[in-house]
Design goal:
Elements lengths: L3 H8 L1 H15 L4 H30 L2 H26 L9 H24 L1 H28 L4 H26 L4 H27 L6 H16 L4
Helix pairs in contact: 1-6, 1-7, 2-6, 2-7, 3-6, 3-8, 3-9, 4-5, 4-8, 5-6, 5-7, 5-8, 6-7
Keywords: Membrane, Transmembrane, Transmembrane helix
Protein name: Putative divalent heavy-metal cations transporter
Organism: Galbibacter orientalis DSM 19592
Length: 238
């Protein structure tokens, strides 16, 4: 990898955003419209990174078997996580600390970290764009996690330490995946990119936009999606 210091620097943005979102929600609970706007924007940003950075990298080599293997594995993993773990996340009557909910969040964050690591392995520009894009998502996730823990009557100190632990998890996942995937062969990188493409598409269509539409919609919320997409499309190098 050309510059691991960039992984350290830009990879830290996402965990900081997660922690910041959690702390902000403790101090002042955001309304559903604010969260919806953030989710729409995050979806647009991530979709833009997929379209402008990752997909062209895959199509430049366009090895059909490698794309099929990677993309298929990504789809199967995300659907498997949804099938086995989503019911745990949706349990509303869990008393005490919502362990199942936090477990699902932790797995989501592990995958987010791996995706950022994949971005940095692809090239520094893609890694930076993807790190910033996922940071917007994690800002909202930090808010949601803090609110869920607060509704379970968890004290503020424990909420902060829980979100801090999750922040360390996603940071560690990013650093480890970037280190392990550095120097992989071109063929294996094609598989990894296709895997990341599938996971990111799932993140946008089945998580971010689904959650964003849980509140009453208006044209400004929808515009946030296109604004996020356009912003990253116009950035230098995009």
């Amino acid at each position: 990898m050309e510059n691991y210091s960039n992984v350290l620097m830009y990879g830290a943005i996402a965990p900081i955003a997660l922690l910041l979102g959690g702390i902000v929600s403790i101090l002042k609970k955001p309304n559903v419209q604010v969260r919806s706007a953030i989710l729409h924007f995050a979806a647009g940003v991530i979709f833009s990174v997929v379209s402008v950075e990752i997909l062209p990298e895959i199509m430049a080599k366009h090895d059909v078997p490698e794309i099929a293997i990677g993309f298929g594995a990504g789809v199967l993993l995300m659907l498997g996580i949804r099938y086995f773990l989503e019911p745990q996340k949706e349990q509303k009557k869990e008393t005490g600390f919502p362990t199942a909910f936090i477990l699902v969040i932790a797995i989501d964050l592990l995958i987010d970290g791996v995706l950022m690591g994949i971005g940095f392995v692809t090239n520094q520009e893609t890694g930076i764009f993807l790190a910033v894009a996922i940071s917007v998502e994690l800002l909202s996730l930090g808010m949601a996690t803090s609110i869920t823990l607060g509704n379970a009557n968890i004290n503020r100190k424990k909420i902060i330490f829980t979100i801090l632990g999750l922040s360390i998890l996603v940071f560690g996942s990013t650093l480890l995946s970037a280190a392990l995937l550095a120097g992989v062969s071109t063929g294996f990188l094609e598989i990894i990119l296709a895997f990341g493409l599938a996971a990111l598409l799932y993140l946008v269509t089945e998580e971010l936009l689904v959650e964003a539409h849980e509140s009453k919609q208006n044209i400004w919320l929808t515009a946030a999606f296109f604004g996020g997409f356009l912003l990253f499309m116009l950035l230098p190098g995009g």
